[in-house]
Amino acid sequence: MPNQRKLEERAEKYRQEYIAALERANAARETMEGKQGRQRKRAYNQADKLAKKAAEAKNAYKLAAGRADGSISKDEESRQFWSRVRHRGYDFVKFFVDKFRASNACTNLDHQVEHDGHNLVNQGRIYLGGTKPMFEYQDAAQPDKKYLFKEAITCVGTEKPEGAHVCAAAYQLQKAINPSSAIETFTQMDGGRVLGSFQEKVNVDGNAQDLFEWQNRPEGQRGAIEEHLKPQILREHTVDWLIGNFDTKGENFVIDTDGHIRGIDKEQAFSFLEAEGAQHMSRTYQPNPNNTLYNVMFSEFAAGRMELDLQEVCQTIGRVERLGREEYLGMFDQALEAKSKGDAAKKARLADRMMERKEGLREEYRTFFQGLIEERYPVNTPDAERNAQNQSRRDEYLDAQGGFVFRDEPERMTVKQQRETAAMRENTVDHEVQREAVQPVRERLTAEEIREFTGRTQEERMPRTRTEAAPGRQKNPEKGR
Fold first, then answer.
1. 426 with 320, same domain?
2. Same-domain pairing of 387 and 397
3. Cα distances (angstroms) measured from residue 279 to each of 117, 243, 285, 353
4. What is the pLDDT of residues 208-232, one digit of tens each?
5. DSSP character string of 164-225
6. Are 234 and 156 members of one domain?
């Protein structure tokens, strides 16, 4: 095992290298701002190279720091190292691919795009991780408002028009059922060619919990997800399930300065709609090298290491159920057209799959949550007392048939609710029986007997009029004449 002191020294070394690289990149950027024409272009190219080096230095520092504090294993360090090597390979291949395809004007420095009456200006390439290059655009009228442009290409630079349409479709769904997480996204076209997608840049809280780091911790050592994030992750899960997006590692969730979780990079949506393992909710289905944040979170809940309010999905389920077929599929028309590549039969098949996910959403969650509850509270252990306790906990979530009960279903009750309702009815019946039994006795009591028990007769206990209660304060009929 590496010496802890050496790990910390290496982390500090990379930190210093990152700071120096960042300072050089920022200085080159400032120099570029004062240039014009060809000089500006040359200065930009130099600043871009330095910014890329700074991004690589930052990644190296994060990796070394993770090894030093134990949040990243040696295997994860190796995986991320080779991932960066592949990224360099993608950039190398893309350089040659670009020689044989039409240039994309949106990647040019100072290029302008009009959107919703606003002028967006390209400020140059930005390095935020991932494989594909991104460019930062600034609203000319509102400098604080920025967008990230991502080309409609694969990781090696070949055309991929469906990626931009998919991201725009995901935004439409987010806006309809989970608006607090929606990030404005639109597709940029040049005639019939898809150039890429623009996504509003989120002001990220640098001190917020790192969900990717959390999910990569060893099992049993993850600790808790902050409470205000849990319901937001559950609601975002509904969006990703409906569009079949399984590229949902912690890196693809950012937390803004208002504490809202934002799901990003949904280009893989619709890719697994016909995959066998993607037809039902699961905490084990993993079509990508990185596990999903959802899988890890639900596994932690099933193991009893995390608390979740599963009812948080009720609102998004209800919003989905209120959407009509035409309105719902209309959000995805361009994305499904691009995914099917002109194959009408495939497009219709994908549309049917989308509707199946929509129409079966509540029952899909019911079955999935039922399984999580049964896992969390087993009743077949050798410990009879534990079995009884777990059965009692199951009764808080499940009905008599074992199905999960959502709080917006007045026609269904959990076993616990049924018992409580039965007890209330029994108490009501007992009260009525007692009242009916006492009434004949009260009617037979004489005034003297009532006085003996209560101190007053029935008539004396009757409310008196104001005049009777205070004869001395009667209104003087002579007064005022």
1. no
2. no
3. 42, 12, 10, 9
4. 999 999 999 888 889 889 999 999 9
5. HHHHHHHHHHHHHH-GGG---EEEEEETTEEEEEEEEPP-B-TTS--HHHHHTSPTT-----
6. no
